[in-house]
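Working notes for the structural subgroup meeting. M.R. asked for a predicted model of this chain before we commit to crystallization trials. I am recording the input and output together here so anyone reviewing the notebook later can reproduce the run.

Input as submitted:
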Amino acid sequence: MEVVVIGGGAAGMSAASRVKRLHKDWTVRVFEASGYVSYAPCGLPYFLVGKVKEPEELTYYPIEVFKEKRGIDVHIHAVVTEIDTKNKTVKVKEGGEVKEYKWDKLIIATGAKEKKLGIEGEDLKGVIRLHTVESGIEGREILKNTKKVAVVGAGFTGTEVAAELAEAGYEVHLIVRSRVFRKSFDEDMSNLIEEHLNKMGIKLHKGVTVTRILGKEKVEGIELSDGTKLDVGAVVMAVGVEPNSGLVEKAGIKLGPHKGIEVNEYMETSEPDVYAAGDVAEMWFYHTGDKCWCPFAPPANKMGLVAGLSASGKRVSFPGVGCTGITKLGDLEVARTGMTEEEAKALGYKVISNTIKARTRAHYYPGSKFTHVKLIVKEDDGMILGAQIVGPEGVKGRIDTVAAIMEKKGTVRDLFFSDLSYVPPLAPVWDPLVTAARTLYKDLR
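Returned structure, recorded in token form:
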């Protein structure tokens, strides 16, 4: 049996490893366009500033592990140019020539691709796009020659990069089209994050876009839509990503509303013996079934595992995602799961929500600080639709608690009566989650 996996990221290598573990006699080939497999793009902001020292540290396993220990035929710098689902072949450009490979099972894990603004100067030397390990290496070299940087885009990647650069002593300009984390946090929580970024010394330019990048051979500045010109020597482009699905669209494989590959719970696509996993695939919220797209590493790995099982003849279903994300901006932790209030209303849900401010530890214990928790629940039955937390500590444990309850279609009552742990150095008697749930439970009651 010949299995071809397109994409050597988290989802692709998870799928390939699972197939090979279950069928040691099958031939499993992986084609990866970059020079690294099983790498962690989430670590690139920290690599840029030297917190992660070597590029190899960003990979979970070296290529040799997959080739020699697992018996997977890994091809790097190999770009798949065509998928033929009728004849079950792929064409691959590698080593200066195009080769054709047959397959019995095909797993597509091409991930996400960066969006471009289509503006003048976007390809100048000094423009950094963090997507592959190679882009991180190039970005680190660029930053050696300047201390003034513009970051364009204020989602997870943009804000992470801005915060890391600011802490490392760079002058940072963050270009924000509307507000930070616009798609991941509601306005009240976004405002809290913006206040913190300002305190870090990051210069926020809100309500503007970049109209052009200035310079002849390298970046010398940027021009904003309000006419402002900023003197910077590097520009980090973080304007968002989208499913890297152009290749499969040409092959006639069905796409979904987010331009990702349409898959069922077994990661099967519209074509027989073709599977898709990770950021290239459509996703759905596990508590409501509504379609969504969340390019995060944990679900990508799990989708890859399910795709590998399905290609191997096993029937294990993928339940969906909570779209749980977290990051750290200096000494502030920010996290979200499920839907924002804006998103829930756009999907037609009648919701009630609240945002509370509560202590992270017992009020009398040294170091007690305040955190903010927002809960969004359905008005009719109290089912939790989403949560957002912004605070100095303990955010991960709390957002993971909500995510786990949501996966079981839990209600605000379930959260209120959850038997959460208590000890003065780590949490108050009334945990911030319980306090938030108590308020909404009273309103619902």
